[in-house]
């Protein structure tokens, strides 16, 4: 997500998107830390000047990755022989788009949407629990 922070006056404290933080500055060889207030501004990842009516679009692309695979053969020292294979794996991405960028995305993807098949959403494996020692 495109996000930037701008420093705002303390009078904006408590307003939506305004957070308290600290600023560290060096003056005359001394370091000072002072409280500040910043406003978080989310923006269109393709057109940073657009900050209103953003939609997060999630999609997957297929990318090539190398993986080691056993060949079934054994080396002279008895260790298994491996080879590098190129495999295709999905890479999940997301982008935040304003109205115009979203329209461009939908127009460019329209032929792919029309030819696509519905599928189930990918499942996310449950996090592994750590055993207590």
The overall pLDDT average reads: 87
N-to-C SSE string, H for helix and E for strand: EEEEEH
Low-confidence blocks of residues:
none
How many helices? The count is 1
Silhouette: flat
Rg over alpha carbons = 25 Å
Quantity of strands, as a count: 5
Structure in words:
This protein is 13% helix and 52% strand. A hairpin with a 5-residue loop joins strand 4 (55-74) and strand 5. By secondary structure, the chain is mainly beta. The chain starts with a strand and ends in an 18-residue tail after the last helix. It is built from 1 helix and 5 strands; from the N terminus they run βββββα. It has a domain at 1-43. Strands 1-3-2 form a 3-stranded antiparallel sheet, with no helix packed on it.
Keywords:
133 residues; mainly beta; three-stranded antiparallel beta sheet; two-stranded antiparallel sheet; 1 helix; flat; Tail assembly chaperone
Summarize the structure.
By secondary structure, the protein is mainly beta.
Question: Would you spell out the secondary-structure blueprint of this structure?
Answer:
Blueprint: E1 2-8, E2 18-27, E3 30-43, E4 55-74, E5 80-97, H1 99-115
Antiparallel strand pairs: 1-3, 2-3, 4-5
């Amino acid at each position: 997500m495109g996000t930037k922070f701008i420093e705002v006056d303390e009078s904006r404290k408590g307003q939506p998107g305004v957070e308290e933080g600290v600023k560290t500055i060096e003056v005359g060889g001394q370091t000072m830390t002072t409280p500040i207030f910043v406003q978080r501004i989310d923006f269109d990842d393709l057109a940073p000047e657009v900050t209103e009516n953003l939609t997060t679009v999630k999609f997957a692309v297929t990318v090539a990755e190398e993986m080691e695979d056993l060949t079934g053969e054994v080396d002279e020292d008895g260790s298994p022989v491996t080879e590098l294979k190129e495999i295709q794996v999905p890479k999940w991405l997301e982008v935040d788009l304003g109205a115009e960028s979203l329209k461009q995305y939908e127009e460019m993807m329209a032929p792919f949407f029309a030819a696509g098949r519905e599928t189930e959403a990918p499942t996310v494996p449950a996090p592994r629990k750590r055993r207590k020692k």
